[in-house]
User: What shape does this take?
Amino acid sequence: MRRIFEKSTSVVALILIFTAVISCEKDFTDIGSGIISNTKFDTSSLLVDIEIENSPIVSVKSDNISAEPGQYLLGVHASDDYEKIEASIVSQLAISTALQVVDDANVYDSDTTVVTKVDTVFLRLPYQVTLNDDGDAYELDSIIGNQSKAFNLNIYQTSTYLSRLDPTDPSKVNSYSSNDVDVFEKTGSELNVTTDFKFLPALTDSILVKRWLSNGALATIDTVTYTSSTTSTIPLPFAVIPLKEDKIKELFLDKYESAEFDSQDAFNNYFRGVILEATGNEGSLISLNFSGTVKPSIEVYYTNSVVAGGVVIDTIHKNDSFLLSGIRTSTYKMEDKVYPVNNQVILQGAAGSEATIKLFGADSDGDGLADKIDELRDDLLINDASLTFYVNEEVDITAIPYQLFLYKSDETSFSHIKDAISEGFTSFGGLLEEDEDGNKRYTFKITDYISDILSGETGYSLNTKLRLKVINKSTDLKSFVSISDTIHKNYSWNPKAVTLFNHSDINGNKKAELKISYSEKKN
Assistant: This one.
């Protein structure tokens, strides 16, 4: 009778397992990876050939309806080795309650008039930043590409209603995908003052707002800054895109006390959202945090001049903010790129490319199992199993991902590999590392997965393949909430890219491989 044992995670577990196999054996040694060393077992390892190939993807889920990614991409990134991406953002705006241009608290005589003048309007986009080594200033973070080259940015009003319910079947939850570029229709011309605003990331940490009286005289100048907390004295860098003052006054201020501003729902139906559209062939790609202390918003600064007898008798300066909030989604316009079939595979996040991996080869005897599985089923204790992928460092690695992720696909559904749950995502692996010779690589521990397949504890279909992708752990795995949640939801906003060596023999000791360490009962 053939018997295969799964790896053990503790000394107690090892004793329990082997009590059923070998009586009176007490000289077990657990050396961390689960390898057994004693007089009854031999330890060894083997390399199993795998097949890995490119798997381009058309789109990924990119909205915040079922899960909030927190991060949204804006900008352009072009590389000769990977697909160009133009990343844009679509978002509703949030309004405050009881917005008024002139507050009820300000009561004036009947012979006075209040003249409202918009001082400035701009789109505020806070950068992600880190403190420098001295801790006295910020440095820009989460930007890839050529920051010395500008991409074009235009802001539009959309006439498309963003809905949480599926418009074709309101009993279902709606969703938006990264390739829904044509779903969101524009209305009117761009809202930004300068068409094709040239966006260059910069450490701007303040803006001067000139306050004007109704007679055209300069009233005062405000210096506007933002900080990460009330106790911080270091201003946060942010981007400013000037918007058309007259247009924003017409769309917002002039409507404050109308039915369109009675509620958030009424406003969402009236002003359905904004499109932040990035275009161009060069520039950089910026990851914006919509969950930070300072959030992206449209900022409106205006001055109310109270006039009596042709003289300004009172001046009230106001500022209203409209956060980019509610339903949000990203659109990724990806360049169609055909990768050659060679000794490499391409991984690119967002809506670029993943890879599929076939572990055990063909089933030539037709018994429903790969021949290699039949061969490996023996009196074995699987101590360790790992998949390793080496980086081709001769291609573009300026935006190399810090982590990859491995999951399972049977062509109809996606699910997590057992080790991601049993060992936790940290032990599961996938982090960028270097071997003893300094070669960059990614390694995954899939011991439980391989043990279950070889023991027959889990069914294995020849249609089941592993999929390898770029990931940002902190946001892409938000759907993973418990050990019972085995379904992998394919979020992917991380746009980084890497080229890996595949399984071809021409790659030598850098070819992709599955290594299995085991203990086998002596004859």
Helices lie at 11-19, 245-251, 264-270, 371-376, 418-422, 424-428, 447-455, 473-476. Residues 212 and 467 are 59 Å apart (CA to CA).
